[in-house]
């Protein structure tokens, strides 16, 4: 090789088009494994003679760990290892097609070339990613529309609220923006696994199962100074309220800018959304999943215990809980460790709930294994199975005597309306049937028993549980809360307590009612209201009791999750207690987005955002946050003057779209009375 350093043409545009990496805005070559890419370089004499290429990654590359490959020119691409095939030569340059194996370690590689006995000359670096478009790859996804959605789509919809009233909001994953790929690679190099043994860690980076587990630990801050610090206290001083984020970019950039200090604060959807960004960026097909009435079974008995006092207040006793919703991830890859029927969607959960292997990580658990009750298969099957299947036990707890009395148990409460965004559309798809057989069916109960048996629970009857005959006692009355009117922040809350006498003789019932503001995890924050009534129900009679909680009563107490738990504990004379409860999520007032004119690449377009103050008092400290990949750089923040009662505000700003196609604009509006009202709009950008 001549004394000069060879200059390399990486054919960035052509290679990116072939490798589905055009959305990255990088001066570095980014390609996918198991597929050829072309480079041209000069500065070699008799170029096609005796060229040897060296591709290496990680701190101490070696052939045994598959982090170092040396390969010479061959006539055809190899199916097994790395290979180089001459495409064309001229007097002083050569074009080479380089192929990597389907199971190559992913990450940043250094590429050099050696000719004859001279020392190797560096050609530069490139990044190698997973390849869901290639049939030999562990992440191969045969459906191209699914590849587009689960790898290339930068916009997502996350479902929230509760099972009676599912709401949704947009999220900007932004996996191809700015420096995100480099940040994702640095997440890998900061994991506990890498710190303990960098050489082994890098050698495992060919395996999506390994990386999924490592990243489920690194996206939360527990153990390893990971990306996001969780906070479920309802107090978010010193950081951002988890409900205020609209995308992953700001979070990942902040983590890097602060010198890799955990970003404050996250709750489940934030962990899931950031994990989606990182995995899509690396090329592993990934989506967010929302499970409604999601169980957190802390003691591994597939049962969730909830305790109430004599006034019907939900007590913080025991570590079990049921969340209105919980968001986790599914990633698509084969499970060579379990066998073909367990391949496909795998559950990963980056929210720090329980330790697994000594650190806060969860998954991958095969979704098929969860459906079939195969809770003994790797990883974390019992925890995930309980999230969608646990039985609920409701207890009355007397703090004076420490006595627990079972009020009732329910096996159909947990794991409802499991939801994800549709492929190519902004709609909800229900995937509950992929997690379990129909609630209440014999098959579903059989699977539950199978799971209990595998966990050694089938013979262990809990000594604290009441005797079986006590469980079988039938209540004399039934009750439910009905919503009367709208459920909106700023409006009075109107409910009906409906009680029905199931017996053929009259019953006297003393009812103690409470309403608490909660987080979406149903953790109580402030008591809003309480009342008690005594009623007599004639035989088989049904009666309705109206309940009104005025806006001023709850306005100071409500959390930014906008959730209220209402309970009525009914003490029936000479009968067993009946617990009636309902979790209510209030809707925010609406905001409206209008695009004034046609959106064209590199041309200014004006957008108008309108909000009407729905309450009788002034709102102030109004802030509008706007973001959207390929529409706007970073986040636009606009301060809005105070709005008098029922006044409408209209705010205009300009966008300059950078790429054609369907793009999503996300808007978040906050003021002193309403937190984080979100909406999004799809904008079709034309060339």
Automatic annotation (TrEMBL):
Keywords: Acyltransferase, Calcium, Metal-binding, Transferase. Gene3D superfamilies: Immunoglobulins, Transglutaminase-like. Its cofactor is Ca(2+). Ca(2+) binds at residues 389, 391, 439, 444. One of its GO terms (molecular function) is metal ion binding. The active site is at 268, 326, 349. Its EC number is 2.3.2.13. It catalyses: L-glutaminyl-[protein] + L-lysyl-[protein] = [protein]-L-lysyl-N(6)-5-L-glutamyl-[protein] + NH4(+). It is an enzyme of class 2 (transferase). SUPFAM superfamilies: Cysteine proteinases, E set domains, Transglutaminase, two C-terminal domains. Signal peptide: none annotated. Residues 260-352 form the Transglutaminase-like domain. The keyword Calcium applies. Binds 1 Ca(2+) ion per subunit. Belongs to the transglutaminase superfamily. Transglutaminase family. This is protein-glutamine gamma-glutamyltransferase. It comes from Toxostoma redivivum (California thrasher). The lineage of its organism: Eukaryota, Metazoa, Chordata, Craniata, Vertebrata. The gene is Tgm3.
């Amino acid at each position: 090789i001549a004394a000069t350093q060879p200059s390399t043409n990486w054919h960035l545009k052509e290679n990116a088009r072939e490798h589905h990496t055009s959305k990255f805005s990088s001066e570095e070559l980014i390609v996918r494994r198991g597929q050829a890419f072309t480079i041209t370089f000069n500065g070699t004499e008799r170029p096609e003679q005796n060229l040897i290429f060296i591709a290496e990654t990680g701190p101490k590359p070696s052939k045994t760990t598959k982090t170092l490959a040396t390969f010479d020119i061959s006539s055809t691409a190899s199916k097994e290892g790395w290979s180089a095939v001459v495409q064309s030569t001229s007097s002083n340059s050569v074009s080479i097609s380089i192929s990597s194996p389907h199971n190559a370690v992913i990450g940043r590689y250094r590429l050099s070339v050696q000719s004859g006995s001279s020392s190797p000359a560096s050609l530069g670096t490139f990044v190698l990613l997973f390849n869901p478009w290639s049939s030999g790859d562990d992440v191969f996804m045969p459906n191209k529309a699914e590849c587009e959605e689960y790898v290339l789509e930068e916009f997502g919809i996350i479902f929230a609220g509760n099972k009676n009233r599912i709401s949704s909001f947009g999220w900007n994953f932004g996996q191809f923006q700015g420096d995100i790929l480099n940040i994702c690679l640095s997440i890998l190099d900061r994991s506990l696994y890498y710190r303990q043994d960098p050489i082994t860690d890098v050698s495992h980076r060919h395996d999506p199962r390994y990386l999924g587990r490592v990243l489920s630990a690194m996206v939360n801050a527990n153990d390893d100074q990971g990306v996001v610090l969780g906070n479920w206290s309802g107090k978010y001083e010193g950081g951002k309220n988890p409900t205020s984020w609209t995308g992953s970019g700001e979070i990942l950039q902040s983590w890097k800018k602060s010198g890799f200090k955990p970003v404050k604060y996250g709750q489940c959807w934030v962990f899931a959304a950031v994990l989606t960004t990182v995995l899509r960026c690396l090329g592993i097909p990934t989506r967010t999943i929302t499970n409604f009435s999601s169980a957190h079974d802390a003691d591994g008995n597939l049962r969730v215990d909830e305790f109430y006092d004599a006034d019907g207040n939900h007590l913080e006793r025991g570590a079990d809980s049921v969340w209105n919703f919980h968001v986790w991830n599914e990633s698509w890859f084969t499970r060579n460790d379990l066998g073909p029927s367990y391949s496909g969607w795998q559950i990963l959960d980056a929210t720090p709930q329980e330790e697994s292997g000594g650190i806060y990580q969860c998954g991958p658990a095969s979704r098929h294994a969860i459906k079939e009750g195969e809770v003994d298969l790797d990883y974390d099957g019992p925890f995930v199975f309980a999230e969608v299947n646990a039985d609920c036990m409701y207890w009355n707890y007397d703090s004076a005597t420490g006595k627990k009395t079972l009020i009732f148990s329910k096996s159909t409460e947990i794991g409802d309306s499991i939801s994800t965004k549709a492929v190519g559309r902004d709609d909800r798809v229900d995937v509950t049937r992929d997690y379990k057989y129909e609630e209440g069916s014999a098959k579903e109960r059989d699977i539950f028993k199978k799971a209990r048996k595998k966990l050694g629970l089938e013979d262990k009857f809990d000594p604290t549980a009441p005797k079986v005959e006590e469980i079988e006692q039938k209540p004399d009355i039934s009750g439910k809360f009905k919503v009367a009117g709208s459920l909106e922040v700023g409006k009075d809350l109107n409910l009906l307590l409906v009680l029905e006498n199931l017996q053929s003789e009259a019953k006297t019932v003393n009812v103690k009612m409470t309403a608490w503001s909660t987080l979406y995890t149903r953790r109580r924050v402030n008591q809003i209201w309480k009342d008690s009534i005594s009623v007599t129900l004639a035989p088989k009679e049904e009666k309705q009791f109206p309940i009104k909680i005025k806006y001023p009563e709850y306005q100071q107490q409500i959390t930014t999750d906008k959730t209220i738990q209402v309970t009525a504990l009914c003490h029936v004379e000479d009968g067993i207690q009946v617990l009636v409860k309902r979790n209510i999520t209030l809707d925010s007032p609406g905001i409206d987005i209008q695009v004034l004119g046609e959106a064209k690449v590199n041309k200014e377009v004006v957008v108008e955002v309108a909000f009407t103050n729905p309450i009788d008092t002034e709102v102030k400290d109004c802030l509008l946050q706007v973001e959207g990949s390929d529409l706007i750089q970073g986040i636009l923040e606009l301060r809005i003057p105070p709005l008098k009662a029922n006044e409408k505000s209209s705010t205009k700003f300009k966008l300059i779209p950078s790429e054609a196609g369907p793009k999503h604009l996300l808007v978040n509006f906050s003021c002193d009375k309403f937190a984080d009202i979100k909406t999004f709009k799809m904008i079709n950008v034309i060339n």
